Amino acid sequence: MYKPWDWLRASRTGAELLATLQYLETQRDAFASQGANHFSPVLGEGDVSGSPTGTHLGPPPSALDGPCWRCWVYPRDPTTSEARYCSTCHAILEDALRLRVVAAQCIVVWGFVNQLPYAARTTVPLRDTYFVARYTHDEQHFLVMLRHRDLQPWLQELVLYHGDNLKGLLQVCPTTGGRDTHMGELLCRMAYNEARFPCDRLRIRFFAAPYYVFDPHVYERMGILTFEVAEFMRMLDMAVVFRSLLKPEEQKILRDLLNQSDPNAEQFYWGRFLGSLNNQARDMLNAWKIRQWSKPQIDLLYELTDYVGFYQTD
Fold first, then answer.
1. Residue 24: is its pLDDT beyond 60?
2. How remote is the C-alpha of 269 from its chain's centroid?
């Protein structure tokens, strides 16, 4: 029977993953209120009378009947005529439609650490955290979803609260729309790659796009994938400064200049571009020596601007 991790692996999109996490959170609360003698089938534990899914298997596929079209384990909902899904999958898919906009603004963090962070523990109310949803797999693994702009303050809180005591790997990945990449497959691949580094410090693996997860070695060699937590937070701070000192149209012009294939044209337009900037922006670009950066480093900086805010300048 399905356990929580199986339900998460069945998620095709970020919206389905978020709906599943919220569903599991609801079932876990119901389980706690019912007492230790009652078990929730969605958690894969025994049987509960009147449960939405039940614990018996669905019928084998045939021309006239079959199991749920999504999980392929439980029977279709008997309370709905011509039902295609079991009651649990139906509830998840219904909630996923409502959560599509929220899920598109979220990222997934899969953590493999020596101890659970304070906010990831189920004893801490979800409203007191930066998380939209969370799941605790065991004493060393957790999964959370949070909005893009909450990544930096959450990491700051994490380092401030735990300091050097927290060690392991946090893998950060944006959600998928489900057209090209299966969200459940991403989770399995991240879990598979979690033990590639020794648990001697806290590291961040930042996947700028979902497909990075399936071929991490390429981006590892470029130096734009795995960072120590202090280094990654410095990069986020740089993205804040970059976004604050350069207007959106200036950021676009700068990227076009840095991707210019003709060195002579780049040199000509670079001087004109610097002349159009204020002193703060000009000093920032000169201090960073951004023209010497590799293309993957430049792309990473622009990706990180979607994860940070900005401050007002005169």
1. yes
2. 38
Cα separation, 188 vs 141, in Å, equals 13
Question: Which of 75, 100, 125 is the C-terminal boundary of a domain?
Answer: 100
Show the domain range for 58.
4-100
Task: State whether the Cα torsion 216-217-221-226 is positive or negative.
Answer: positive
85 contact partners, CB below 8 Å, separation of at least 6:
68, 69, 70, 71, 76, 77, 93
Where are the alpha helices (H) located in 58-125, listed in sequence order? 87-98, 100-104
Task: Give the tens place of pLDDT for each residue, 72-114.
Answer: 999 998 887 788 999 899 999 999 999 999 999 999 999 999 9
Residues 260 and 199 in one domain: no
The CA distance from 123 to 134, in Å, is 12
pLDDT at residue 238, as a whole number: 96
**Stated pTM of the model:** 0.87
Strand partners of residue 145 = 108, 133
* Burial of 168 from C-beta contacts in 10 A (0-12 / 13-18 / 19+): buried
54 in any annotated domain: yes
Contacts of 174 (CB under 8 A, 6+ apart): 14, 107, 108, 148, 207, 208, 209, 210
Condensed to tens digits (0 to 9), the pLDDT of residues 206-256 reads 999 998 999 899 999 999 999 999 999 999 999 999 999 999 999 999 999
Residue 10 lies in a domain: yes
- Tokens at residue 311, please? 């401050």
Backbone phi and psi for residue 143, each to the nearest 5 degrees, phi listed first: -135, 130
In the structure encoding, which two tokens stand for residue 9, read together?
A: 């692996």
230 inside domain = no
17 touches 186 (CB < 8 A): no
121 with 179, same domain?
yes
Q: State the average pLDDT over residues 120-147.
A: 93
Question: Which residues have CB under 8 Å from 293's CB, separation 6+?
Answer: 258, 301
Counted domains in the chain = 3
